[in-house]
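Lecture 7 notes: from sequence to structure.

We start with a single chain of 185 residues. Read the sequence below before looking at the structure.
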Amino acid sequence: MKTIISCVLILVVALTTDAQVKRKGAQAREGKLNGQTIEASQVPDAVKSAFAAIGPTATRWEKHEAKGKSAKSFVKYVAVYTQDGMRGRARFREDGTAMSSSKYMKAEQLPAGIKSAAEAKIQGQKVMGGEELKTKKGEIYYRVFSRGGGSRTVSVFDANGQPVTKDKMPNDLNESEGEDDGDGN
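Now the structure, written as tokens:
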């Protein structure tokens, strides 16, 4: 009897946690979490100029309060855009300094080498999509989402398809605003 109750409790906790993660991801996409949607006229000119140099046109701007390494808060601006059929987000400080960017991809949009590396690492699961991450230093990483057997796996690879362990990940990889829901778009 104790075993059955324990299993039911574990299942309830797992389902509740999954629902909370999905709700937070949806709220972040709607601009309700970690920031607010703002008009382009509220974005500093330095930020708009830095984003214009990248190429795409912003479909939405967000203003976020963020904490730095010293726990000191600062403002960052996020340009949300679509380019080549992929959603993206570019993050900037108030002075226009680029912080990082993300492009959200469906499984078929991932580079072949990255998709192959992910499939080799997560055998028995299906690659659902991923995210190309560019750090402020210009380094490219890929976060790949896969599912199978009732579980979800998130793997990170460098641009050469080599797995990146948690302790080797740049801090920039943790700047997602919740859009990494694994559907690629």
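Residues 34-174 form a domain with the Nuclear Transport Factor 2; Chain: A, fold (CATH 3.10.450.360). Keep this in mind for problem set 3.
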